């Protein structure tokens, strides 16, 4: 794991100039397609040796042909993705699968000793110590823009010098809304993110701030910083991707235009950088960057995430699973936008976790959470 500023631990993971063999899980999604664009632009640095998709078979086949991937290493589904990771020689696995189904491939990647470029935050959050205990120092490199930013900022000091981690949030499309205004939000409005283009679940999670709650837990697990030393600030421009405050009062920020290619590229080559991945901020032009506190009473997702993260065990898995069911119900127009968080909160309150964690207890807790969420949704409907 990237423990404290343990980004430094992975210096020398490989020699500069080595051709990196890459497996991409979720290759037909947003993360996967952008990773392939980076690889296509840098054919001397990367070789694609495996691709896993979900439902878009036509695009997956086209990707396999274009990048010369052995047909047996172009697969569909999370189980096949797990076998692909286990059976294929590679340096880096990019896990861009959406949702907790990415947990098994994450664990498989760590068992094989491959570098894990982790965009599938749910597998870390749901797996918790199952993932952290399976990973070698520096084996996991975050691909979320916020956590990639934190890793970069942490290079500026030692663990004992870190005061707080500061996660930035765009605030989503409903920044400044009151609780009453949120009652009228439609699925179409929730999918209109002001700065990022993402899939349905992640975009909705950004609108509810559940995504920021998940990222809060992810930051705690990745960097081993207590929850009371992780803050969230709303930054609508999404140029400052996160910051680290040090004990002397200095704050280091990582800034770049909102483009996921930068953290994806760093996930494949960390700590080395590739030329011209994304244009930098143009300081020959005027810019206004603003920051404001998060209203945790209207947007309760972060507050609930702190509670479930602190409780540990299978509470984060329940939080995530209940959210996935509620998001589907919202887009099916079965529940309202505020009811997403109401469902999550009630499921979390009902949860009675096992005292020890295993893959089996995590999966059982997830199943229970989904069933309980569906029951609550049906009652409301």
List keywords for this structure.
single chain, 381 residues, alpha/beta, Rossmann fold, Rna Polymerase Sigma Factor, Chain: A, six-stranded parallel beta sheet, five-stranded mixed beta sheet, 16 helices, 11 strands, 14% strand, disordered N terminus
Protein topology:
Elements: E1 20-25, H1 30-41, E2 46-53, H2 57-66, E3 74-76, H3 78-87, E4 92-95, H4 103-112, E5 115-118, H5 121-127, H6 129-134, E6 140-142, H7 145-154, E7 162-169, H8 179-182, H9 187-190, H10 200-208, H11 210-223, E8 230-234, E9 240-246, E10 251-255, H12 261-269, E11 292-293, H13 301-311, H14 315-331, H15 337-350, H16 359-380
Parallel strand pairs: 1-2, 1-4, 2-3, 4-5, 5-6, 7-8
Antiparallel strand pairs: 7-9, 8-11, 9-10
State the distance separating the first and last CA atoms: 43 Å
The CATH class assignment of the domain at 6-143 is: Alpha Beta
> What's the helix count?
16
**Number of E strands:** 11
CATH architecture heading of the domain at 6-143: 3-Layer(aba) Sandwich
Structural class: alpha/beta
Helix content: 40-55%
Give the overall pLDDT as a whole number: 93
- Order of helical and strand elements: EHEHEHEHEHHEHEHHHHEEEHEHHHH
Using the alpha-carbon principal axes, give the shape. globular
In oligomeric terms, what are we looking at? single chain
Low-confidence stretches: 1-15
The percentage of residues in β strands lies in: 5-15%
Largest sheet: 6 strands, parallel
Please name the fourth-level CATH homologous superfamily of the domain at 6-143. NAD(P)-binding Rossmann-like Domain
CATH topological fold name of the domain at 6-143: Rossmann fold
Radius of gyration: 20 Å
Instruction: Trace the largest sheet across and list its strands.
Output: 3-2-1-4-5-6
């Amino acid at each position: 794991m990237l423990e404290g500023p343990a980004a430094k631990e992975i210096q020398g993971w490989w020699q500069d100039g080595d051709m990196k063999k890459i497996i991409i899980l979720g290759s037909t999604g947003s993360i996967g397609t952008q990773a392939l664009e980076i690889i296509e632009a840098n054919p001397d640095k990367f070789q694609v040796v495996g691709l896993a998709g979900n439902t878009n078979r036509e695009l997956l086949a086209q990707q396999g042909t274009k990048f010369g991937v052995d047909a047996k290493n172009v697969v569909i589904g999370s189980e096949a993705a797990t076998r692909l990771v286990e059976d294929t020689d590679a340096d880096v696995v990019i896990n861009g699968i959406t949702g907790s189904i990415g947990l098994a491939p994450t664990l498989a990647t760590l068992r094989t000793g491959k570098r894990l470029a982790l965009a599938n935050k749910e597998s870390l959050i749901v797996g918790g110590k199952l993932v952290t205990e399976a990973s070698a120092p520096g084996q996991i490199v975050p691909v979320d823009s916020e956590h990639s930013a934190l890793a970069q900022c942490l290079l500026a000091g030692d663990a004992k010098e870190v005061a707080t981690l500061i996660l930035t949030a765009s605030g989503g499309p409903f920044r400044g809304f009151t609780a009453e205004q949120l009652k009228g939000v439609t699925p179409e409005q929730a999918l209109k993110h002001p700065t990022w283009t993402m899939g349905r679940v992640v975009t909705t999670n950004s609108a509810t701030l559940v995504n920021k709650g998940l990222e809060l837990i992810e930051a705690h697990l990745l960097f081993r910083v207590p929850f009371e030393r992780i803050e969230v600030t709303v930054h609508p421009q999404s140029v400052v991707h996160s910051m680290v405050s040090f004990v002397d009062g200095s704050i280091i920020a990582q800034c770049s235009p909102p483009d996921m290619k930068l953290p994806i590229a760093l996930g494949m080559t960390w700590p080395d950088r590739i030329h011209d991945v994304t244009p930098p901020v143009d300081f020959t032009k005027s810019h206004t960057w603003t920051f404001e506190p998060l209203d945790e009473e209207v947007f309760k997702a972060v507050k609930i995430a702190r509670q479930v993260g602190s409780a540990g065990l299978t509470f984060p898995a329940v939080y995530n699973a209940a959210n996935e069911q509620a998001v589907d119900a919202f887009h099916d127009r079965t529940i309202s936008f505020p009811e997403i968080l109401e469902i999550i909160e009630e499921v979390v309150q009902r949860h009675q976790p096992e005292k020890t964690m295993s893959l089996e207890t995590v999966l059982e807790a997830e199943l229970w959470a989904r069933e309980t969420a569906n029951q609550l949704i049906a009652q409301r409907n």
